[in-house]
Amino acid sequence: MIDTHFLHYLEENFLTENRIERFKAILKNRTSHFTIAMEDVYQLHNTSAVMRSCEVFGIQELNVIEQKFGKRIDSEIAMGAQKWVDINRFSTMQKCIDNLKDKGYKIIATTPHNDSCMLHEFDISERSAIFFGTEKEGLSEEVLSQADGFIKIPMVGFTESLNISVSAAIIIQDITTRLRQSNINWQLTEEEYYQHRLIWAKNSIKDIDFIEKNYYSKVNRQ
Fold it and tell me: Model confidence over 86-106: pLDDT tens digits?
C-alpha cells in the first residue's frame, strides 16, 4: 500500500511544482504492458544503452539475467536512466522466465532465425516480455525452447544481425509507438502510478533516508 500522505509531504516540501508535473506527465506515458529481458550481455555499455532506450520510450521494467557475468550500470551511457527504470536482476534464466510468466507475460525471443514474425506483424495486444541474447551467440536454447513466440527485424543487407542495443532500440520504439496509437489499456495501474511517483520523489531528494526516518518518527508520536 502506497503512503500517499508521505508522497504529498515530500512533494510539497522538497520538490518544485515543475518537477512534480514533469513526473506526472512522464508516468502517464509509462507502461508495464511490455518488459525487456537481457540474457548475460557481456559488454556493459549494451546493458546501459538498452536501459536508456527503455526509459526514453516509456518501458518501466528491465530484467537482467546475470548467470555468467556480473553486472553494474554504466552511468555515463545510462544517462541517469537507472533512477527512472526498474531493474530486476536474476541469477538464472529460469528464475527470470518463471517470474515473468507468473506476472502474465508471454515470452518473446528476438532472433533472425526460426519461424519468426516480422516486427511490423508482431501482435502488441498481449503482455509480452521481449528477450535479447548475447552479442555473439544470441539467445540460449533455454529461452528459445520456452518462448511463446519469435520476432525479428526486417533486414535487406548482407549483415545478418544488428548490435543488441541497436536491435533493442528499434524494437522498443516500434512496439511502444504502435501501443500508444492503439485502444489497448497499456498505461500503469493507479497503484503502479503512485508507487513510482513516490520512488521518483525519493530518488530526487538528498538525505532522503534521514527525512523519511524523521517523518515517520513524528507520525508515530502523534
Answer: 989 888 899 999 999 999 999
Q: Which amino acid is at 31?
A: T
Q: What is the pLDDT of residues 194-209, one digit of tens each?
A: 999 999 999 999 999 9
- Together in a domain, 16 and 45: no
Number of domains within the chain: 2
pTM, two decimal places: 0.89
Cell of 44: 556493459
d(CA 184, CA 191): 19
Helix axes 190-203, 208-221, angle to 10 degrees: 120
CATH, residue 49: 3.40.1280.10
Residue 114, sorted as left (phi over 0), alpha (psi -120 to 50) or beta, turns out to be left
CA distance 221 to 180: 46
Question: What gap in Å lies between CA 104 and CA 32, rounded to an integer?
Answer: 11
Say yes or no: 148 and 191 in one domain. no
